[in-house]
Design a protein that fits this description.
Number of strands of chain B: 2
Strand order of the largest sheet of chain B: 1-2
CATH topology of chain B: MetI-like fold
Largest sheet of chain B: 2 strands, antiparallel
CATH class of chain B: Mainly Alpha
Radius of gyration of chain B: 26 Å
Distance between the termini of chain A: 29 Å
Structural class of chain A: mainly alpha
Structural class of chain B: mainly alpha
Low-confidence stretches of chain A: none
Chains: A mainly alpha (272), B mainly alpha (304), C alpha+beta (371)
Largest sheet of chain A: none
CATH topology of one domain in chain A: MetI-like fold
Order of helices and strands of chain B: HEEHHHHHHHHHHHH
Oligomer: heterotrimer
Mean pLDDT of chain B: 82
Shape of chain A: globular
Chain lengths: 272, 304, 371
């Protein structure tokens, strides 16, 4: 395309990039400055860079607790979710039986459910079973929450595996369960990895269910913790910014290593 | 050797029922216990007053109250507005960006990764950042406006009933444009080269090629993104909760925040009424999704 | 003693109108190479899969080594299968692919190692043992698939169109390898294909199937020279047998056929007498029709006009229309033939190789059918 148009387009794109990434860059800068410095000038470059704010936030506010709670809940949920989801997806993809498509449709259609339809009753149920305000309760809810998406992604992958492979394994003497573990899952590793990463990010950021089902300070997950932070320390912008940075770190790490996979995983279903 | 009827295995060799059940049981248990049953229970709740220690059946009293509930209708209006405006902005801007990258602008790979980043962030983080951006005194937005002489336009963006909803819509657009752009870029790249080349041979100018060839071909993806965006906005909660909580004056109240408030913050402690709201909303969302997919599906899949 | 015996084997799929396989009865002896041959959809693969245990049997019995195995799961039938798509485990090395089936059968580790190394050496795979399938060529993958079956030392080998994914040259050489394998191992092999050349060259006997039923069973040459039906006659042989509808005349002897205005008297050993007016089909293979008369008493001249000549180098096909009937006659001769489009020529058909089929398409000559 002609040079003038190209330069204009590049200009527009760069402006947009500033718009898209700007807030994070600003937050990063704020996280390294003390609140006093910030009040003097909200946009100055960190000078000096106060790296000590990070351990400070970690240890002195309950950040460590919130962070570890999130880690526990999310990792546990993702592990259970992946295994349970893979089993169901494998079954739906490979075995022909009358209820197959009905079950698939039912599971898949819950993706459009607004969470309100389940959240009130979930609250009641967890209270009744003593799981309210517990990490276990939240973990179980998270598994149920992400199952439809996981099964959807894995089912389409398992369905593409050639049938001959399973026949050969059956003739080699392997039972259905062994075929699942030793043939299906290993081959499906790329798709499984995608769902793991996807679920990790979605659950790490999850807020609504956490805010309804957890009120105990000791059990708060990270998003709740940050919200609490805002409430307690409204004016301490420096501290909040540091907290935000800590919250983003795992996501950034995953994104840095797996950006391609992540992008593809999150957008795969949308391309038609 | 006399032939005799072979012992028929149950179903075909491929239907070992025991295994099928074993594989599906965990997933179905989660589903029934934590998704299906709660949904039904919510429906059941909607016909009761659900108080901490007892429940009383009230028939359709909740529903009739709902019809008169002004806050509910304001919330619905806000949410539906959001769900209608957002897709338009998000998909249009995303399309422009995707086309720019598709036209082989240098740095495409970097831009793609950079623009996708907002999608990964929690709404909480995003909400806080934008509350600062919108801050009346020192937020970058107002600072910028004042710097270029448009200080008169500076507002308490999230504090004014007229601008609050719009400000939030901008935030979600900021988040999701990147997602839509990536999807559209993939769709553009998957278009068959020969059709585009045929258009070039037919002496199509750039804009004609765009309108008459490219857009019709990616129509399915465009519509898909519109529906996805629509559904997402109908469910929105996190962003509103961390920024305005429905204020000022219900101008940013969404159905989800209203349900939460009625269930857990109002002192009536009645879970029945919010269940009613949830049920009605569920039906509305389902109906609109079905309507949209039906509207968009009646077009045949393009054969090339 | 037959090692694999199919007795009226039938397969009906749920909600299907017609059975996929109906009343198939074949006996395969020890060390035999039996080819199941037929057009696509004829039921040959379904039959093979029933033998393997991958499809359930709707009716009839299947016995291996004298024992009925209808309900026995695939892994317990002592059978190995080579799949059309090879079905190699993509996430495992060649070694693991070969050893996978053995590990499951409580065979001691050193025995597994010995067998795998042996088979790899035999098939020329020793240097590829650490590679994964995606790093192998098509031919190499095929050999791994073969190796996987050999290493199991099964009673019966099953092949499901193993050569159809290979290019032409590779197909020929692999065909030779399979034949050599059969000679070396002396094992019982059942092989499914739609390719006649594979069937004719590999099989000790072939079983031709059509529409789920057995059309004919016999040695390749036997089936070729004595087809039991017009289907078999038209299926085997390239180009296919010339077939013409005909009517028995009222000439004495009841063996004279009228094709249009032509009259042919079939030698007695090729046809039993029939009442006048019976509709039959007359068949003669292209290699028994030539432009030069051999001077034999059984030859019959046909006046024809040449419509197409295909010179293939080693042989020539001459396609002509029979005068005043318009039916097409294909003649095949070695070398070149000095004929061209439009030539009027007399073609000679040797009636000592004539075939006559009844109105339903069945051969009228008595067959010695081996089962």
């Amino acid at each position: 395309m002609p040079v003038l148009t190209r330069t204009l387009v590049l200009l527009a794109l760069s402006l947009y990039t500033a718009f898209a990434a700007g807030p994070f860059v600003w937050a990063a800068m704020l996280s390294l400055r003390t609140t006093t410095e910030i009040h003097l000038n909200h946009f100055a470059f960190p000078n000096p860079a106060h790296w000590e704010k990070f351990p400070d936030a970690w240890y002195n506010s309950n950040y460590a607790t919130y962070f570890m709670n999130s880690i526990e809940v999310v990792i546990a949920a993702v592990v259970v979710l992946t295994i349970v989801g893979a089993m169901a997806a494998h079954c739906l993809a490979r075995y022909r039986f009358r209820l197959n498509r009905v079950i698939y449709f039912i599971l898949f259609s819950t993706i459009i459910f607004p969470p309100q339809i389940t959240i009130i009753a979930l609250f009641q149920i967890l209270v009744n079973y003593g799981l309210y305000n517990s990490k276990l309760g939240l973990t179980l809810v998270y598994v149920a929450l992400q199952l439809p998406l996981t099964i959807y992604i894995l089912e389409s992958f398992f369905a593409r595996l050639p049938a001959d492979l399973f026949d050969a394994a059956r003739m080699d003497g392997y039972s259905d369960w062994e075929i699942f573990w030793k043939v299906s899952l290993p081959i499906a590793l790329p798709a499984v990895a995608t769902t793991v990463i996807l679920n990790f990010i979605l659950l790490w950021n999850e807020f609504l269910f956490a805010v309804v089902l957890i009120t105990d300070e000791a059990n708060r997950t990270l998003p709740l913790g940050i919200q609490r932070f805002i409430g307690d320390t409204q004016e301490d912008i420096g501290m909040i910014a540091t907290g935000l940075m800590i919250a983003i770190v795992p996501v950034i790490i995953v994104y840095a290593f797996f950006s391609e996979k992540l992008i593809q995983g999150m957008t795969a279903g949308a391309v038609k | 050797m006399p032939a005799f009827r072979a012992k028929e295995l149950k179903g075909d060799v491929r239907q070992p029922w025991g295994t099928i059940v074993a594989f599906l049981l965990p997933a179905l248990t989660f589903y029934v216990a934590l998704t299906a049953y709660p949904a039904i229970r919510t429906l059941w709740n909607s016909f009761h007053r659900v108080l901490p220690r007892r429940e009383e059946f009230v028939g359709i009293a909740n529903y009739s109250e709902l019809i008169k509930d002004e806050i509910f209708w304001k919330a619905v209006s806000n949410t539906v507005t959001w769900a209608c405006i957002s897709p338009v902005i998000e998909v249009t801007v995303a399309l422009l960006l995707a086309l720019a990258l598709y036209a082989k602008v240098p740095g495409a790979r970097f831009f793609r990764v950079a623009w996708f980043t907002p999608v990964l962030m929690s709404y909480i983080v995003v909400g806080i950042l934008w509350m600062w951006i919108y801050n009346y005194d020192w937020g970058p937005l107002n600072t910028l406006l004042r710097a270029i002489g448009l200080g008169a336009l500076a507002q308490p963006w999230l504090g004014s009933p007229d601008t609050a909803l719009g400000a939030l819509i901008l935030v979600t657009s900021w988040m999701w444009v990147g997602f839509n752009m990536v999807v559209l870029l993939a769709a553009l790249h998957s278009l068959p080269k020969d059709v585009i080349e045929a258009a070039e041979l037919d002496n199509c100018g750039w804009s004609a090629k765009l309108v008459f060839v490219i857009i019709p071909l990616i129509r399915a993806t465009l519509l898909n993104l519109v529906v996805l965006s629509f559904i997402g906005k109908m469910k929105i909660f996190d962003l509103v909760w961390i920024t305005t909580k429905g204020n000022p004056l219900w101008s940013t109240e969404t159905v989800s925040t209203y349900v939460y408030k009625r269930a857990f913050e109002w002192t009536t402690f009645d879970l029945g009424y919010p269940s009613t709201i949830a049920t009605v909303w569920f039906v509305i969302v389902l109906a609109t999704v079905l309507l949209l997919t039906w509207l968009f599906r009646t077009r045949e899949k393009l054969e090339y | 003693m037959a090692i694999v015996r199919l007795e009226r084997l039938t397969k009906i799929y749920e909600r299907a109108q017609t059975p996929a396989v109906k009343d198939v009865s074949v006996e395969i002896g020890h060390g035999e190479f039996m080819v199941l041959l037929g057009p696509s959809g004829c039921g040959k693969t379904t039959t093979l899969r029933m033998i393997a245990g991958l499809e359930s049997i709707s009716d009839g019995t299947l016995s291996i080594d004298g024992q009925i195995v209808n309900g026995v799961p695939a892994k317990d039938r002592d059978i190995a299968m080579v799949f059309q798509s090879y079905a190699l485990y993509p996430h495992m090395t060649v070694w693991d692919n070969l050893a996978f089936g053995l590990k499951r059968r409580s065979i001691p580790r050193d025995e597994i190692e010995r067998r795998v190394r042996n088979v790899a050496a035999t098939l020329g795979l020793s240097e590829f043992l650490k590679r994964k399938p995606h790093a192998l060529s098509g031919g190499q993958r095929q050999r791994v698939a073969l190796g996987r079956a050999i290493v199991r030392n099964p009673k019966v080998f099953l092949f499901d169109e193993p050569l159809s994914n290979l290019d032409a040259a590779l197909r020929v050489s692999t065909r030779g390898e399979i034949a050599a394998l059969h000679r070396r191992l002396g094992a019982t092999m059942i092989y499914v294909t739609h390719d006649q050349v594979e069937a004719m060259t590999l099989g000790t006997r072939i079983c031709i199937m059509s529409n789920g039923r057995v059309a004919q069973v016999g040695t390749p040459l036997d089936v070729y020279h004595n087809p039991a039906s017009t289907f078999v006659a038209g299926f085997l042989g390239n180009p296919p047998m010339n077939l013409f509808p005909a009517v028995v005349t009222d000439d004495a002897g009841g063996r004279t056929l009228a094709i249009g205005s032509l009259k042919l008297t079939i030698p007695p050993e090729r046809m039993a007498p029939l009442p006048p007016g019976t509709s039959v089909t007359f068949g003669i293979r292209p290699e028994h029709v030539s432009a030069h008369g051999q001077g034999r008493p059984t030859e019959i001249p046909f006046s024809c006009e040449v419509v197409q000549v295909e010179r293939l180098g080693a042989e020539t096909l001459v396609i002509s229309e029979i005068a005043d009937s318009g039916a097409r006659l294909v003649a095949r001769s070695g070398g070149d033939v000095a004929l061209d489009l439009g030539d009027r020529v007399t073609l000679y058909a040797d009636l000592s190789a004539a075939h006559v089929f009844d109105a339903a398409g069945n051969a009228l000559r008595q067959q010695t059918e081996t089962r």
